[in-house]
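BUG-480 | component: ligand-complex export | severity: low

The export step for adenosine-5'-diphosphate jobs runs without errors, but we want the raw record kept on the ticket for reference. Input record follows.
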Amino acid sequence: MKIVHVASELFPYVKTGGLADAVGALCGALADNGHEVAVFLPGYRAVLEHKDAAGAERRLRLKVDMANDFLSGDVRVFSPRKNLRVFLICREEFFDRRAPYGTGDRDYEDNADRFIFFCKAVVEMLRLGDLQADVVHCHDWQAALLPILLRETERRHSVTLALKTIFTIHNIAYQGVFPAKAFARTNLPDELFHMDGLEYYSQINLMKGGILFADRVTTVSPRYAQEIQTPEFGCGLDGVVQTRADDIVGLLNGVDNSVWNPALDALLPARYSASNLAGKAGCRAELLKRCGFAPDCKGPVFGVVARLAEQKGIDFILANRDFFFEHDCRLVVLGSGNRRMEEDLREIVRMAPQRVYLSAQLDEAMSHLIEAGGDFFIMPSVFEPCGLNQMYSQVYGTLPIVSRVGGLADTVIDADESPLLGTGLMCDPSTASLRDALQRALTLYADKPRYAAVQQRAMARDFSWQVAAAGYESLYQDSL
Ligand code: ADP
Ligand code: GLC
């Protein structure tokens, strides 16, 4: 099949979270399976500076009509592997910036224009660039305008640009809601600014458009597919999702085992596998050193790698600060984002620098070291569409402690509830329930044979992307 993906992040070129990993791995798996895959990505500074993009070829010069304001852009293309081409939509004014969406806690003020331009430029490229897509697969709000834009453009020009469109919700909490005046920039007919269209409480909601107008809608775990149809998790779009209940499917993300594999991981000081864990001890020693902790500490190391956002349940960890002071254990956090959470974490580090460590940066190598060198990984999310780190943790033999929501509930089995099957520990998204799980973690860690058995089961789990890719392939085929 000829498959076009449209996304705002792609590993290894630009990443703020799991979206990049998921799109990168899915496109790689589809290309390996022999499909012709094209990915459209904004030409951010970070991407253009990447060595793979150095020789990118200029393919097309575009003029995008945004309410009679004609904005120019370039399309550049490079091919990082067989069957895979990356098309960059370039316009310096919009994308030559340090971060994709904003700085610190603040989004860029022109995000509506930036991503409407991005979607319109993709449509222009499909129209003029001879790509003939079987399927156009759009990810999250940044690409959510495409299904309706494509159909409107096809109607206006009497052409077929894509046989089917797919929209994947990676996180319904981020919807791309902007003031109504942004609607004009789309050049879509006024009747689409309506409660059965893109209008949402007098504003424009891009994700709503993706959900309503794509031929098929998917999300990243079966449980989340159910959850987003309820007011508790739907973030105001549960009613809209319900209208697509028959067309929505939850396909679990996987682990890209060319990137996340303790036996091959070049970012680690030592490599290891389930049958030989010596290297894991080496990673632990390196992690302790990196954090400035005593080299001989006996208690477990709890790791956290996360965007500092309400979603990730960081406040439950903060509220349990005394746990880490009272017991022989360590807490290592890699995360940035919300300023207040960052400050609160720094405060805990000041109180007990020999127990708690924070790195408030984006640091790919450190994220691997925490996954490898930790004994437990904490992820008490309030909601979690899929979550990748709890899967990485299991593959790395670092037992995840997760709340029972979304993809976390779909990928972890509690070792106390299921002694023969358990691969981690589960709690509710609350301070008290997390505390109980942390206590149970100490008990489990003290029982070496039991800890080792749970670890072996975790490491034996197969989260490979082939399963997920096969799910998407049959979805594409079925829709066609
Ligand atoms: P989300 O997409 O909601 O942030 P996921 O669990 O799906 O959550 O994916 C998060 C991804 O981002 C993982 O690959 C994780 O390792 C990575 N990540 C998060 N914070 C950092 C950080 N500060 N440095 C490096 N990687 C990070
Ligand atoms: C989103 C979600 C996360 C998911 C990722 C990739 O960022 O928050 O749970 O794993 O997308 O699909």
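Assignee comment: Attached the raw record above. The chain has two domains: 2-254+465-479, 278-460.
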